[in-house]
């Protein structure tokens, strides 16, 4: 199986070296380089535009928006995972708007980081457990309060399915976890999308953050 190419960026030596160690020791991953600044990362990315970039929010020279703009100029399909100390909903919202694929707090475990990388490599979004819970909590408040009377309130089962979708599970995986059929999961997914008038998980996350006036 082909290994997943990785580029790292963190201004803090200790944290960056820790990430280097985790990536280098995992047989599924291939570390192509690490950087201490956004500009250095972009330079490395020009040589490896297929790599997944794991970027710390502590990068001092450029913010995430600026970094994403420059990375997209090289490869519009760039896949970025942000590691942050913040659980502010506004910071998450801003990062999602730039097109990042993963958003994790620095308190995650090694296994959670590897799982997130694999999810992003497979075309999914990835959020740390604390971030997922934050999003679901905000969304649940929105659904409970019924901010838009034209949208029907979601059911308890739909909310369970919603949480697992945002956590990155496939329909077949959700079916096993909830002891229902994959077809039933697809029905719940379709109902959610219809009720909220959205087309995909990324739009669902943005809706939960923006339509609830949380940005």
Q: Can you tell me about this structure?
A:
The chain has 215 residues and is α/β, with parallel strands linked by helices. 54% of the residues lie in helices and 14% in strands. A six-stranded parallel beta sheet has the order 2-1-3-4-5-6, with helices on both faces. Helix 2 runs parallel beside helix 3. It starts with a strand and ends in a 5-residue tail after the last helix.
Number of strands: 6
State the secondary-structure class: alpha/beta
| End-to-end C-alpha gap | 40 Å
Overall radius of gyration: 18 Å
- pLDDT under 50 segments (min length 5)? 147-151, 211-215
Major sheet details = 6 strands, parallel
- The spatial strand order of the largest sheet comes to 2-1-3-4-5-6
Beta-strand content bin? 5-15%
**Number of separate helices:** 10
Overall pLDDT, averaged? 83
Helix content: 40-55%
- Compressed to H and E, one letter per element, the order equals EHEHEHEHEHEHHHHH
The outline comes out as: globular
What is the strand and helix layout of this fold?
Elements: E1 4-9, H1 13-24, E2 29-35, H2 38-47, E3 52-56, H3 64-74, E4 79-84, H4 89-98, E5 102-105, H5 110-121, E6 126-127, H6 129-145, H7 156-166, H8 171-178, H9 182-196, H10 201-210
Parallel strand pairs: 1-2, 1-3, 3-4, 4-5, 5-6
Helix pairs in contact: 2-3, 4-10, 6-7, 6-10, 7-9, 8-9
Features:
disordered C terminus; alpha/beta; 215 residues; single chain
Quick take:
Helices cover 54% and strands 14% of the residues.
């Amino acid at each position: 199986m082909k290994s997943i190419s990785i580029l790292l960026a963190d201004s803090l030596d200790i944290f960056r070296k820790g990430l280097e160690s985790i990536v280098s020791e995992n047989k599924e991953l291939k570390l192509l380089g690490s950087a201490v600044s956004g500009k250095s990362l972009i330079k490395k990315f020009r040589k490896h535009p297929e790599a997944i970039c794991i970027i710390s929010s502590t990068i001092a020279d450029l913010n995430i928006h600026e970094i994403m703009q420059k990375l997209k100029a090289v490869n519009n399909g760039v896949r970025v995972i942000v590691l942050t100390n913040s659980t502010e909903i506004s910071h998450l919202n801003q990062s999602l708007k730039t097109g990042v694929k993963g958003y994790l707090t620095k308190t995650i475990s090694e296994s959670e980081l590897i799982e997130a990388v694999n999810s992003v490599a497979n075309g999914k979004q990835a959020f740390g457990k604390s971030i997922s819970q934050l999003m679901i909590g905000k969304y649940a408040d929105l659904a409970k309060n019924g901010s838009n009377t034209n949208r029907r309130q979601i059911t308890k089962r739909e909310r369970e399915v919603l949480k697992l979708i945002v956590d990155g599970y496939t329909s077949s995986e959700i079916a096993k976890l909830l002891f229902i059929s994959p077809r039933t999961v697809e029905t719940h997914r379709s109902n959610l999308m219809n009720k909220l008038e959205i087309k995909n998980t990324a739009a669902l996350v943005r809706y939960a953050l923006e339509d609830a006036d949380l940005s």
